[in-house]
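ok trying again, last paste got cut off:
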Amino acid sequence: MTTTELTVLDPRTGDVVTQVATADANACDAAVDRAHSAFAHWSRTPAAERAESIRQAAAAVEAVAGELAEVNACETGKSREDSLGGRSRRHWHAQAIR
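nice, full thing came through this time. structure:
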């Protein structure tokens, strides 16, 4: 696997936020294959169990929403408030599949 790094800049300041590894085509193909395998299991999981998993994931994201909003603001130039804008959708998705 060949990896390179991508530099993420804050568009507001031009400062380096972080560097992240990129994946080559083989790593991407392997990830897609794993996702396909996981989907077979997920699709056989009862809807109530899937909803609970999504609810737990939404709660975990909500617990660190402020931190994620700060990171998103630095990466995209959005305001912190705008970065927090999608919070209610996570809970809606968990409720929608019940």
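cool. The first strand starts at residue 4 and ends at 9. The chain has two domains: 1-44, 46-98.
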